[in-house]
Write a structure and sequence with these properties.
The protein has helices at about 20-30, 45-50, 105-115; strands spanning about 15-20, 35-45, 55-65, 70-80, 100, 125, 130-135, 140-150. It is of the alpha/beta class. It has two domains: about 15-85, 2,3-Dihydroxybiphenyl 1,2-Dioxygenase, domain 1 (Roll), CATH 3.10.180; about 85-150, Roll (2,3-Dihydroxybiphenyl 1,2-Dioxygenase, domain 1). A hairpin with a 5-residue loop joins strand 7 and strand 8 (about 140-150).
């Protein structure tokens, strides 16, 4: 029985997102309030092994939310060439979206708009608890923004 088995300690390290233009993605996420922890260019046998791609070569950046709890790893492939796909739709199976709590959804949407990013449809209210929306971020990334309305 799974419930009685000892559990391994685990924590979410980060969410990795491949982007078309790492500088544009960094600008978007830092304007929303994330901080760049570091940037690098990685390649070599260790990256080939870890990622499972021969000749893996990428620009990477690690960003962190202001509370220190959430991290995004952005990567822009130099080799092999990045593969353009249709942007993910909200009802597709697989990696879906990245979500952020914000203090002021209207201010966050104004920041997103400066980057050409707008809600897919509009801002909704969920049970007078949250105002939330999905938007297309850089490289077509689905980003959810949510403002808690019942702040204590």
């Amino acid at each position: 029985m799974l419930g009685s088995m000892p559990r391994m300690p685990i924590k979410l390290e980060n969410v990795g997102i491949a982007v078309r233009d790492i500088d544009a993605a960094i600008a978007f996420f830092t304007d929303l309030g994330l901080t760049v922890l570091g940037r690098d260019t990685v390649s070599g046998e260790w990256t080939d092994t870890a990622v499972g791609l021969d000749g893996n070569h990428a620009k990477i950046a690690m960003l962190q939310t202001p509370d220190g709890q959430g991290r995004l790893e952005l990567f822009e492939y130099i080799h092999p060439d990045a593969i353009e796909t249709e942007p993910t739709r909200p009802n597709e199976i697989g990696m879906h979206r990245v979500a952020f709590s914000v203090d002021d959804i209207d201010a966050a949407l104004a920041i997103a708009a400066r980057h050409g990013c707008h809600p897919l449809r509009g801002v909704a209210t969920y049970q007078d608890v949250y105002k939330l929306t999905y938007l297309r971020g850089p490289s077509g990334i689905l980003v959810m923004l949510a403002e808690e309305l019942t702040k204590s």
